[in-house]
Prior knowledge:
The structure holds 2 protein chains of 2 kinds.
Chain A: E1 2-6, H1 8-14, E2 18-21, H2 29-39, E3 49-52, E4 55-57, E5 69-73
Parallel strand pairs in A: 1-5
Antiparallel strand pairs in A: 1-2, 3-4, 3-5
Chain B: E1 5-8, H1 14-23, E2 30-37, E3 41-42, E4 45-46, E5 49-54, H2 56-74, E6 78-84, E7 87-89, E8 93-101, H3 104-121, E9 124-130, E10 133-136
Parallel strand pairs in B: 1-6
Antiparallel strand pairs in B: 2-8, 3-4, 5-7, 5-9, 6-8, 9-10
Helix pairs in contact in B: 2-3
Amino acid sequence: MIKVLFFGPVAEKIGQREMLLDFTDGMTLHGVTHDIDLRYPGALSIVSFMAVNQQQVRDAQIALNDDDEIALMAKFSGG
Amino acid sequence: MNAPVRIQQEDFSQDEEISALKASSSRMGGIATFLGCARDFSAGHSVSEISFEAYGSMALSEMRTLREEAITRFGLLDARIVHRVTTVKAGDNIVFIAAGAEHRAAAFDACRWMIDELKQRVPIWKKEITPQGDAWVTPHP
């Protein structure tokens, strides 16, 4: 199972904070974002950062493993 | 003693954080601090409250990395970073950063660097609650 987390403005656009997806061999981060984009058109337009298991990643083609935790995040505004 | 890097709901004491920093080394000759606090006015409108949200585990990990990097990069003796994640009103404390070094230049530079990097790298978001409605804040320098 892949857990996808949403925070702040992205969670507001998606309408939920967490999504569970069945893991399949060969699954990539791009595949996950593509799937979510189809289900929630435009909701990911404000995503500026992605993380897999709390590590920021820039390559959307990264292969996922079962039980990975993904975060799709808007620009940060802490401080 | 509290951990040098924390995310918490409750307020913090600057005096306690500085005391903890000073206690880490008797060679410390300069301490620079940054206190971020809530304003009641932003981008031309009144702000009633500011609500914070964080990706807690990643935010804490990034803040710890940030502290370690600052210590190495600027030759600090110690550093502390505390960020509140809760809802605050005007005047309330939000974030506290302290850099302790043998001399002031490194402390000043590191303190500025840490708050600038925190804003870029740490997954925390703020929403301004105004009489006209709520809005997530778009980052600015």
